[in-house]
C-alpha cells in the first residue's frame, strides 16, 4: 500500500514549488522531505520531479500523481469536516439481512430486541438469498445476516455462524378443515390437503423425509417460497401448513387456525451470521442473547 505520509510530502512540495518552502510549511528539514520523496519514487518506480538547475520541475508522472493526491487530500479534509459536524445524538445504523426462506414472524421475533435498546438506533432490513446476503456481509454492507443454516461449506465468505437455537414444527389448519380429518395425528395427514414450503429448502427436505419414514401421503395443494403467503392460504382453509413451534400461539391467533400436532423429529435451526467470531456489536449481542434465553429456550 502506498505510504500516504510520503504522498502528502510530495503534494505539499508540488503545491509550494520547492522543497525549501515545503519544509517551512511542514516544519521539517529539507533533508527529511527529500529522503521521503526518494522513498515514494522508489515505491512508485518513477521520477516525480526533474531537477532543472537548482529548481524542481514536476514530471509527467508527477502531474498524474498530483491529480490523484489533490483528490485524496481534498476528500480527507471533507471527511474531517463531516466528522466534526456529525451530530453526537444521531441514531446508530444497524443493517441486517434476512434470508428469504426465513419465516417473517421468526425474523420479527429475533430482531424485536434491537428496537428496545436504550441507545438511539435506526434499523434497515434487506431480504435476499443467503448467497447474496453473505456477499454483502463480506463487503461490510451488513452488520448481521439471519438464516436457517450456517455458512455453506461451498461459500468462501469470511464470517462466523452463531447458532441462535432450534425448534420443532407445528402442523396447523383452519378449524373446519381440522374437523374433517380422520384418525389421530400424524396419520390424519394421509390424503389431506397440505401446503408445503418450496422445494430445495432445509425445511421442505426435512418434511419430505419425515413423511416418507412415516409412510404418510398427503395431497399437496401448493408449495410456497414465502411462508407468509403459505399461511395466508392456510387461513382461507386451502390446506394444512407448517410453522415453527416457537411461534405456534402467535400464528394461531393471527391466522385463525388451530394446531393439529407437533413433530419433534423435524427441527428448524436459526443462525446469526456476522464478521465477528466474538460478537462485540451491542445490537447483535442483544439479539443473540434474547433469542437464546427467550425465543428458543
Secondary structure layout:
Blueprint: H1 4-16, H2 19-26, H3 30-44, E1 49-52, E2 55-58, H4 60-85, E3 92-99, H5 104-111, E4 121-128, H6 130-138, E5 144-147, E6 160-173, H7 175-180, E7 193-197, H8 202-214, E8 219-224, H9 227-235, E9 241-244, H10 248-255, E10 258-274, H11 282-295
Parallel strand pairs: 3-4, 3-5, 7-8
Antiparallel strand pairs: 1-2, 5-10, 6-9, 6-10
Essential attributes:
297 residues, alpha/beta, two-stranded antiparallel ribbon, 25% strand, elongated
What does the model show?
With 297 residues, this protein is α/β, with parallel strands linked by helices. Helices cover 43% and strands 25% of the residues. It has eleven helices and ten strands. The strands form three sheets. It has a six-stranded mixed beta sheet with strand order 4-3-5-10-6-9, sandwiched between helices. Strand 1 (49-52) and strand 2 (55-58) form a beta hairpin. The radius of gyration is 30 Å and the shape is elongated.
Outline of the structure:
Helices cover 43% and strands 25% of the residues.
Tally of DSSP helical segments: 11
Straight-line distance between termini: 49 Å
Q: How large a portion of the residues is in β-strands, by DSSP E?
A: 15-25%
Structural class: alpha/beta
**Share of helix, binned:** 40-55%
- State the total count of DSSP E strands: 10
Mean pLDDT over the full residue set:
90
Which ranges are low-confidence, i.e. pLDDT below 50, for 5 or more consecutive residues? none
Please give the radius of gyration in angstroms: 30 Å
The succession of helices and strands, N to C, reads HHHEEHEHEHEEHEHEHEHEH
Instruction: Note the overall shape.
Output: elongated
Amino acid at each position: 500500500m502506498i505510504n500516504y505520509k510520503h504522498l502528502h510530502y510530495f503534494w505539499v512540495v508540488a503545491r509550494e514549488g520547492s522543497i525549501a518552502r515545503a519544509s517551512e510549511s511542514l516544519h521539517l528539514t529539507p533533508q527529511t522531505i527529500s529522503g521521503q520523496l526518494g522513498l515514494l519514487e522508489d515505491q512508485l518506480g518513477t521520477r516525480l520531479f526533474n531537477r532543472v538547475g537548482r529548481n524542481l520541475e514536476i514530471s509527467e508522472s508527477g502531474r498524474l500523481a498530483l491529480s490523484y493526491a489533490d483528490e485524496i487530500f481534498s476528500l480527507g479534509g471533507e471527511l474531517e469536516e463531516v466528522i466534526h459536524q456529525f451530530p453526537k445524538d444521531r441514531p446508530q445504523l444497524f443493517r441486517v439481512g434476512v434470508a428469504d426462506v426465513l419465516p417473517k414472524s421468526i425474523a420479527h421475533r429475533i430482531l424485536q430486541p434491537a428496537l428496545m435498546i436504550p441507545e438511539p438506533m435506526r434499523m434497515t432490513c434487506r431480504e435476499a438469498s443467503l448467497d447474496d446476503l453473505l456477499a454483502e456481509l463480506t463487503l461490510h454492507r451488513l452488520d448481521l445476516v439471519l438464516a436457517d443454516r450456517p455458512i455453506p461449506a461451498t461459500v468462501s465468505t469470511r464470517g462466523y455462524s452463531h447458532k441462535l437455537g432450534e425448534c420443532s414444527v407445528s402442523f396447523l389448519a383452519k378449524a373446519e378443515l381440522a374437523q374433517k380429518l380422520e384418525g389421530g395425528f400424524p396419520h390424519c395427514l394421509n390424503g389431506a390437503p397440505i401446503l408445503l414450503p418450496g422445494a430445495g429448502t432445509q425445511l421442505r427436505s426435512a418434511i419430505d423425509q419425515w413423511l416418507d419414514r412415516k409412510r404418510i401421503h398427503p395431497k399437496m395443494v401448493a408449495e410456497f417460497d414465502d411462508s407468509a403467503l403459505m399461511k395466508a392460504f392456510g387461513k382461507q382453509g386451502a390446506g394444512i401448513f407448517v410453522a415453527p413451534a416457537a411461534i405456534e400461539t402467535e400464528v394461531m391467533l393471527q391466522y385463525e387456525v388451530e394446531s393439529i400436532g407437533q413433530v419433534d423429529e423435524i427441527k428448524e435451526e436459526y443462525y446469526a451470521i456476522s464478521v465477528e467470531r466474538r460478537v462485540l456489536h451491542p445490537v447483535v449481542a442483544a439479539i443473540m442473547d434474547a433469542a437464546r434465553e427467550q425465543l428458543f429456550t
